Amino acid sequence: MTQGGSAALEEHISAHFGAENRPLGIAVSGGSDSVALLHLMADWGGAPLRCVTVDHRLRPEAAAEAEGVARQCEALGIAHDILVWDNWDGQGNLSAAARAARYALIGDWAARHGLAGVALGHTADDVAETLLMRMARRAGVDGLAAMQPRRSAYGTVLHRPLLGAFREDLRAWLAARGIGWIEDPSNDDPAYRRTAARRALVHLAPLGLGAASLADVAAHLAEARATLGHYAAEEAGRIARAELGDLLLDADGFAALRPDIARRILAAGLGWIAGGVARGPEVTRALARLKEGRGTTLAGCRITHSKGSIRLAREGGALAGIRADPGTIWDGRWTLVGPPAPEGAYIAALGAEGRALCPDWRASGLPAASIDASPALWHAGALLSAPLAGRADGYAATPCRTLRDLTASLLSH
Length: 413
Description:
44% of the residues lie in helices and 17% in strands. It has helices at residues 5-17, 32-44, 62-76, 94-112, 124-136, 141-144, 167-176, 193-204, 211-239, 251-255, 259-274, 280-291, 351-355, 368-372, 403-411, and strands at residues 24-27, 49-55, 79-84, 118-119, 150-153, 156-159, 240-243, 246-250, 296-298, 301-306, 309-314, 334-337, 346-349, 375-379, 382-385, 396-399. Keywords: ATP-binding, Cytoplasm, Ligase, Nucleotide-binding, tRNA processing.
């Protein structure tokens, strides 16, 4: 073994989870990394465990492989579930679509079973391969930085306790115990970029650029990412304020920021408003427009520049068809609190037509576009309440996100 032997592998689990005793999930594909994770966590035994395998229906052997994982779990006394994804429509990037679907399915599964998080079998080799792949895409610090050991996403916490371990060691650990694993043929298919990166590492190793050294580089970049996030959070605390669901940035303060700090704050602000993720080049173009004093739309948000402030607000057009039942969260941003609503009532955007029914909307101080994107209670096409537009009728709109959430997102990326 290359990195301290069996005990070192087992310590990765206990060091990562510590005294955690809440139920945890384990995502197991059947490959060596995830199978090793399954058995290492079973040996650890610090929390109740439940396992999941996602069958993407992309290979005829996948169903049998998932059943093989189920048998291993049964032998270990661990509950196992198989989730199926068969929604591939032949459009776009198959690997990206399958990955997004897998994580979404796993997140829903974790929530259904009340799991505190889900462990994934990513290793130092994955970190090195990802670094090479993202270098080819000319990624910046965030893209090149190592995967995070913990990350809140898809409605759960994703844990990667084996980022300090290497595939070679995990396979030796399994072999010593007579535990088998599945070799996915796609891992040898040169059409996949990860396969090409894995092969490139073999040729780079004589130059001192093997998996271990590249994983170290990615870890250094993760430190840089964390430092930039720290300073971005400090600057956001100085120049940002919330106004009835919109985010206002002091224009002069924002203009004085270093470009990477400004980019981070803008991207985090867009996520704070709409919950999505804006691509780096799109954020860079938005910054260029702001520098010219112009606004734009991006990631379901409106970005405007006037009266000494940069305003980030929800884009009304992105809210078409988004509804929620009374008492639930609407658009990931608002709840309406008030008397019981009539059966069939729903929360949706106020819109321009609804604003026309609210003569006192200007008292809010919000621009018309922000009022149009505000939550309203409707029933059979009739407006019952628009709290931000001066027509409360017994209801109040409560934002689900605070500036602390903005700061937290900057610190966690």
